[in-house]
Design brief:
single chain, mainly alpha, Serine Threonine Protein Phosphatase 5, Tetratricopeptide repeat, 4 domains, about 80% helix, about 0% strand
Length: about 425
């Protein structure tokens, strides 16, 4: 720390001696604040050395807020400001050169080079409107070329690919150029272009899905939005099935989401149960308290209200024997045997015969939720097995998920992807 401050003093050409007034201001700080002040200067210096002058200015400014008039912080701030201005001037010089290069490459019809320069300008320019105008000029030139070639010809496909590439639509770029390469397989330059864009697409997709997606998933988790967090982690797993951070993120978020969902459901049941009880609608109130017990069998409040309702002569629904049709009974049996697809189909047939059968409707919804939950459980088990190198077990889990719920999208996509990889 002292060494770095000494270098900072040397680098910024300032003496470390404070005036008596400033020294008194610094020394009047509590020890913890003095420590924070020194840490600010230390971090500001590192940012300055790393040429992150925007950050170093902010840090020196914060130091000045703690100790107004501090000579080291003042000098650091002014030097950072000068460096930042120089840096921006140099950047503008490079930007101008790049913009000139684009115009030159358009004249020479070096389309790939022109597009790469435009991409760089969008990422680095401080004047996006000017760059946008240049992009439009380039796209206009490319579309003029497209109009010169017959539909579905190799040349037209190549130039369509250039337009897609200019707009960073990498999947369509690859599609157009691969179609063109089947017509002109001897075009070596086109092969190089395809390889280059394929690599860019892989890196871009990884950054968007894994890097940025992971950051968003953590932010959603920290803000308590567990469902969003879990969905982002799942997208990462679909892209990278062996991503351990995502696997752990899914486990944590789904566990908390499940707890949160249960708490919310209990709260809803409680509000409805209490309201209907006060309205003396005891049969409806009883359903809500029974609903709480189905989630939390030890809930004393629900037990107490059920006892009160029973004392009024209302019998819980589960204690009433209900005669059901053979089809209804068979559907319930299939459900107990975990044959969810067959059970749901049978309940749907019951509904066809009696569209007003509310209980059959409830069963269909219950089965859908059970299918989704259990399919997801097998899907997650498959991801874990796959990440541990057990591909056969993973495939079994995903197949089991689809057996339970044939419409489970993540299992369908992952199974196809992994089977394709294994086949190769």
């Amino acid at each position: 720390m002292k060494r770095k401050l000494a270098i900072l003093i040397l680098a910024l050409t300032v003496s470390c001696a404070h005036s008596p007034l400033l020294a008194a201001t610094y020394t009047s700080l509590e020890p913890q604040l003095q420590k924070e002040f020194n840490a600010l200067l230390d971090e500001a210096f590192n940012s300055y050395i790393n040429k992150d002058y925007t950050k170093s200015m902010k840090l020196f400014q914060r130091a000045l807020q703690m100790v107004p008039g501090d000579k080291t912080a003042e000098k650091g701030f002014s030097e950072s400001q000068v460096k930042l201005e120089d840096q921006q001037k140099e950047k503008m010089k490079i930007v101008r050169q790049r913009m000139s290069f684009v115009k030159e490459e358009i004249k020479k019809e070096n389309w790939m080079e022109a597009i790469d320069h435009v991409h760089w300008l969008f990422a680095n320019s401080i004047n996006p409107a000017e760059v946008q105008a240049l992009r439009v000029e380039l796209e206009t030139a490319l579309r003029r070329k497209i109009d010169n070639f017959p539909v579905a010809s190799a040349d037209r496909l190549i130039f369509e690919g250039f337009v897609y590439y200019l707009n960073r639509n990498f999947p369509e770029t690859l599609r157009a150029w691969k179609d063109a390469s089947t017509m002109v397989s001897s075009n070596v330059k086109l092969t190089i272009y395809i390889q280059k864009v394929a690599q860019i697409y892989r890196e871009t997709a990884y950054h968007e899905i894994v890097v940025l997606g992971g950051e968003r998933a953590k932010e959603a988790f920290n803000s308590g939005n567990y469902e969003v967090s879990a969905n982002l982690w799942k997208k990462i797993i679909e892209f990278d099935p062996q991503n351990n951070e995502a696997l752990e993120g899914i486990r944590k978020t789904e566990e908390l989401a499940n707890n949160k969902s249960k708490e919310g459901l209990i709260s809803d049941y409680y509000d409805k149960g209490l309201a209907t009880f006060l309205e003396e609608n005891y049969a409806e109130s009883l359903k809500s308290w029974e609903g709480i017990l189905s989630i939390d069998p030890a809930n004393e409040v629900a037990k107490d209200y059920i006892a009160k309702i029973k004392a009024k002569g209302i019998v819980p629904a589960r204690e009433i024997e209900k005669k059901v049709s053979p089809a209804f009974q068979q559907a319930m049996t299939l459900y107990e045997q975990e044959k969810y697809v067959a059970s749901k189909e049978l309940f749907l047939k019951v509904l066809e015969q009696n569209p007003k059968d509310r209980e059959a409707e409830d069963w269909v919804e219950k089965i859908k939720k059970t299918q989704a939950q259990k399919a997801e459980e097998h899907y997650q088990k498959g991801l874990i097995s796959y990440s541990q190198g057990n591909k056969d077990e993973a495939l079994k889990e995903w197949e089991k998920a689809l057996e339970i719920d044939p419409s489970h999208g993540p299992s369908q996509r992952t199974l196809l992807k992994v089977k394709g990889a294994v086949a190769k």
